Amino acid sequence: MSGAGGTTAVRLLIHASGDIPVDTPRVPGREAAKHELSKPMYHENDPNLLQRGLDRLWGWIGDLLETASGAAPGGPVGLVVLVLIVIGLVAALWWRLGTPRRTVRSADALFDDSPRSAAEHRKAADVHAAAQRWNEAVQERMRAIVRSLEERALLDPHPGRTADEAAAEAGRPLPAHATRLHAAAREFDDVTYGGRTADEQAYLVVRALDLDLETAKPLLTTAAQGAAE
C-alpha cells in the first residue's frame, strides 16, 4: 500500500491496535492471582486448623459409612441392623462371661520369692494387725496356715500353689476344717486380687482358724494307717 491513502490506513491500524486488550501469559497470571489471594484480607473467615481437621475427620467417617451402607444388604437400614446385632452379641458375651478378671499366676499366688517359716509369717501378720493393715495381716496369716501345714507334712511344699488349691488339699486330712479353709482362701483372694478391703473381723476369723489348726489332728487315710501300724 503506497501513497497518502496507504499512510493514512497504517496510522488508523496503529491507533486501533491500542484499544485491543493485551493477553497476559498463563504462568505469570497464575502466580499473580496466587499472590493476590494469599493476602490476609481474603482469609479472615477461614476455619482454623482444628476445624479443618474435624471437617476432614467427619468427611472420612461419612465416606466410610457411605461405603459400608452401600456394601451392606439393605443399604443404610441394613447397616444399622448389623450394628445392632454386633452390639447385642457383645452384650450377650459380656453377660455370659462376666467382667474380665486378672489371671492369677501360680508362681506368686501365695508365697513370694523369699521362703519364710510359719512363725515368721505369724509375726508379720501380728505387726500388720497392730498397725491396722488388715489386708496384709490376712495375707500373712493365710500364708502362716499353709506353711504350718507344710511343716507338719500335711501338705507337700509347692511354690506355685494357690490359696484355693491349698485349702482343697488341706481339707482332705482335715475335713472338719474344710469349710473354714475355703473361706480363708476366698478372703485371701479377695484382698489380694479382687480389690476388696479386709477389716479386723476378717483377720480375726483367719487367725482363729490358724490357732485351731495348730492342735487339729489329721484324719489318716487307710493307706497311712497301714503304714503307721
Describe the model:
Helix 7 (163-170) packs antiparallel against helix 8. Helix content is 66%, strand content 0%. The protein has helices at 3-17, 26-37, 49-71, 75-97, 118-130, 134-151, 163-170, 178-192, 200-215, 222-228. Residues 1-5, 100-108 and 222-229 have low confidence and may be disordered. With 229 residues, the chain is mainly α. The protein is elongated, with a radius of gyration of 43 Å. The protein has ten helices and no strands.
User: What structural category do the secondary elements indicate?
Assistant: mainly alpha
- Main sheet specs: none
Principal-axis shape equals elongated
Spatial gap, N to C terminus: 150 Å
**Whole-number radius of gyration?**
43 Å
Estimate the helix proportion, in percent: 55-70%
Number of helices: 10
Count the E strands. Answer: 0
User: Spans of 5+ residues with little confidence (pLDDT < 50)?
Assistant: 1-5, 100-108, 222-229
The overall average pLDDT, rounded, is: 76
Along the chain, the helix and strand elements come as HHHHHHHHHH
Beta content comes to: under 5%
